[in-house]
Amino acid sequence: MNKYGIGLIGCGTVGSGLIRNLAKANPLLRERLDIHLEIVAAAVKDITKVRDGLPVKPIADWRKVIADPAVQIVVELVGGVDDSFQIAQTCLKAGKPLVTANKALLAERGHELIAQAHQSNAPIYFEASVAGGIPVIKVLREGLVANQLLGLHGIINGTSNYILTRMAEAGSDFATALQQAKDLGYAEADDRLDVDGIDAAHKAAILCLLAYGFLPKFSEVPVEGIRKISSQDVSFAAQLGYTIKLLALVRPHGSDQVEVRVAPTLLPNRHPMASVHGAFNAIGLLGNLSGPVQLTGRGAGPDATSSALLADLAEAAKNLRDKSPGPQIPQPDGKLRLLQKGESVGRFYVRLEVEDRPGVLALVAGIFGSEKIGISSVLQPEGHGAGSVPLVFLLEAASESSLEKAVAQITKLPNSRSPAHILRVEDLS
Ligand code: HSE
Question: How many domains in the chain?
Answer without folding.
Answer: 3
